[in-house]
Amino acid sequence: MQARINIFRLIVLSSISSCLLWVAWPPFRLNFVVLFAFVPLLIVEDNISIYHKKKGLKVFLLSYLSFLFWNIFTTYWIWYASPGGAVLAIVLNALLMTIPFYTFHFIKRKFGNLVGYFSLICFWLCYEMLHLNWDSPWPWLDLGNAFATTRDWVQWYEYTGTLGGTIWIWTSNILIYFILGIRRKALGSRKAMIISLLLVLILPIVVSYLIKPKNPILNNKANIVAVQPNIDPYNDKFDPATYDSQINTLLSLSAQKVDSNTVVLAWPETAIAELINEKTIFSYRSIREIHEFLKKYPHLKLITGVNSYTTYGIDESHLATSRMYSDKSGWYDGFNASFEMDHTDSIHIYHKFKLVPGVEKMPYPEVLGFLESYSISMGGPGGSLGSNYHPVPFKINDSLKIAPIICYESIFGEYVSKFVKNGANVLAIITNDGWWQNTPGYRQHLYTGALRAIETRKFIIRAANTGISCFILPSGEIIHPTEYWKEAVIKSPVYISQKVTFYSKYGDYLGWAGVYAGTILFIILNLSLIRELFKRSE
After folding, report:
1. For residue 130, which of 14, 216, 250, 494 sits 20 to 30 Å off, Cα-Cα?
2. Cα–chain center distance at 199
């Protein structure tokens, strides 16, 4: 058993965990480090539990310090889009990470090691499920995303999603922690734990290589074109004086690659930056110009991002995010939308559902609507955007259905899988990754989105305003990537798969199991504490 460690060394150990988590995170390729990155923090918790006074306070402060540094090191780039938003996101997310670790500390002290470390996994799953499902989601640092740059190790995500990676990481860390000699007698012999650890480390990787699909035969008779116009989102993108030139750029680039075999042309998020009224779409010159281009290719469908809005009469039903006109004659809602267009007058519209908190949406607008004026403007209509839960793919033709995934939505595995359950056989990610400058942000976004290909075993089209546009195979392999901050247009044959993976069918079932188990453990802990209080009062 280890000796008492002074507070300075505990701070150092907490900081070591931060650094290990940082170098394990994309875009770095030292992802294996995450399998032992939490060990120093587990040593800190155990040492405080045995030797220190004010145990709960010290565990809270030192774990918060560790998670705070990890958040700073990996997501500092938010600062370039919003300094205030970066501080808020980093500080609050570190706090939310601390809560499951802090609660685990009490469970372990109360019910012992076996229940304690099991609760740590459950509570961490609760934290990740919160970020995947509540109204202020930020699953960027969910642990399973750590393997986004070593996707060959996690081909089994088609069965578990990234939450399977979270369980793998915590299980490995806990076993390594015990093997090092810390409290090892509590859970069995060192030999048994070493064998368990080897199985935990090696078996998932072996299985991953065994089930990795071979590169598919792409359909050369049907191709996809993706355009990267590379328009500065800060200085040009939402300047009305540039709207015409932006459309000209998009059409000019498209003409370089589109041919008679092209079935889909993909433009990035808010490619049509002009604010379009969805009730009078063809009254806009930019839309008419696009329509004329599409008439040259009768079999071509355009999927493009659009800044759009719609209006409601004063007595019509409307969304919680709707704003009233100043003359009180009606309501309106702005959307981050995707349009599917062709040479006819038919247009299908999808509204982004997973909105960026604090930028595109004020969480819980029914309650916090009065804070609208504090939302961060990133182009388009200010305040909270409207959204509809409608994960239905665009039907391109009888054999091809494409899921229109807009930017931030690409990090929500279960939400993307709902498109697949509704018939999508190809995924399209349209995004604008120029907000964060040349930092790890746009690369993290790319690599995390590539995990959706593995989870769903679907071909992905990725069209970025700037960042990296590419195509992604069902194995997660990235092909034809563009360079950052460069105008580009890319083309690839398409691969259509009707397969519905286990994960696509059942979603985050591991997370929900963790939520149920964690809730039960939390209730038991509180009942135990209440019982102790009654005993003391007698």
Report:
1. 14
2. 29
Integer CA distances (angstroms), 198 to 35, 153, 186, 194, in order = 12, 15, 20, 6
- In this structure, of 77-81, 190-194, 276-280, the range with the lowest mean pLDDT score is 190-194
Mean pLDDT lowest among 61-70, 284-293, 372-381: 372-381
**Contact by Cβ (8 Å): 451, 423:** no
Which conformational region is residue 273 in: left (phi greater than 0), alpha (psi within -120 to 50 degrees), or beta? alpha
* Pairwise CA distance, residues 518 & 317, whole Å: 39
Q: Is 243 helix (H, G, I), strand (E, B) or coil?
A: helix
The CATH fold assigned to 219-312+322-506 is: Nitrilase/N-carbamoyl-D-aminoacid amidohydrolase (3.60.110)
Q: H-type helices in 2-54, by residue range?
A: 7-24, 39-51
209 contacts 251 by C-beta, under 8 angstroms:
no
Residue 253 amino acid letter:
L
Question: How many alpha carbons fall within 13 Å on the CB side of residue 301?
Answer: 19
Collapsing DSSP to helix, strand or coil, 389 comes out as coil
Q: Is omega for the bond preceding 27 within 30 degrees of 0, making it cis?
A: yes
Compute CA 64 distance to the chain's CA centroid, rounded to the nearest angstrom. Answer: 23
226 forms beta bridges with 266, 490
Residues 6+ apart with CB under 8 A from 535: none
383 versus 328: the higher-pLDDT residue is 328
- Hey, is 19 helix, strand or coil? helix
CB 166 within 8 A of CB 173: no
Could you state, in order of their start, the residue ranges of all structural domains in the chain?
7-212+510-537, 219-312+322-506
Distances (CA, A) of 257 to 227, 250, 261, 408, 488: 9, 12, 10, 27, 11
